Amino acid sequence: MGLSILSLIKLSGSSLLGNPVRSFLSGIGVFMGVAAVSATLQVGTISRAVIEQQLAERDAPQIFTYSGWNSITKESVQFSLEDITLFQKQLHGLKSISGMNWMESPEVVFQNQQANPTARAMTVDFLNTSGRKLVAGRAFTSSDFENYKPVIIIDQFLVDKLFKNVNPLEQSIYLNFRPYIVIGIIASKYREEEEPKGVVYLPMAIYSAVTGEQEMMMLLLRPDRIEDLETIAEEFKKQLEQRFPGYEFYIGNTVEEIVQQQKTMDSVSKALLVVGAIALIVGGVGIANITIASVIERTPEIGLRRAVGATQLDIMLQFILEAAILSLIGGTIAIITVHGATVVVAQQFKLPYKFERQTAIIALSSAILVGVGAGFFPALRASQLDPVKALRGE
After folding, report:
1. Domain map of the chain by residue range?
2. 114 or 314: whose pLDDT is higher?
3. Mean pLDDT on 305-324
4. What gap in Å lies between CA 240 and CA 236, rounded to an integer?
């Protein structure tokens, strides 16, 4: 009858403690491999957190294009509501699409307060396209456009500058000497190098009625997924060139540098993961070599155990458990060490970091798998030794 698992674990532990130098050398190999894998996974986790943080500080990822230009006729073409409807139907993976015009040198006045913000005329779905969230009030509705209502949405910066302690909702402000009613407030988002000026949005319908401009200078497209940004941009350019033959269009996106940064980080993470995997395999080879040496050294012990009733399975499981215990201990120490080092680095450079159990489980599981795999064949060899020859030390 074979030994119980608990007895085998105790026996394996005693064997490892009986030869601390051999156990330490095996554990070091596993430690280095798991540390490399764990560090690689942490780099990926932090890079994703950095990207998410940068995206959260901006509007939603968008593709944009300006009025097309014909280099032969020297004419430009602008967009209409019909174009928006058409592209919304033709482009797959699109969350929303909006048109936009700018107002030059806008001046906003409320009572005795004055500001010169950025002013943009937008189509009805602009909040969804930009990803902006309302702090208070409501968004534009179809009724605002159909009835040419003089309503306006402003950002928090403009609220603080113009209204002080007054509730801005339903207040009348003047934009270029024309009255508008404030119906909504959005959060302010500015890049570090950008000087805050405030921003106001008004419906494209009322803008067209005031200025006489029916067409739009710019289209903004928001994909369902940031991963589809480039694919949709390529398809969008093809659709534009088919709809407006002879005209050239510049297609860009609002997160180009972040996308490039993400690609670079992904490439670095993959390269580091390969290095970590190699280090882990090297650690496994070390376990295999030391286990083989251990089998040779302990041949008489194996013969004695077989002679007193130990089964082949007992012998094999003992050596496999020794490899697994070494992997577990070395891997655990490596994960704790890498986590501590990552916390210090993240605090030093103000990086977003949160310990993920999944990362630790993957790193530790890979260590145990490599350890068990490396120790399997030496353990199998040990279990197949002839008891009589083993007692003689052969």
Report:
1. 5-55+260-391, 63-254
2. 114
3. 81
4. 6
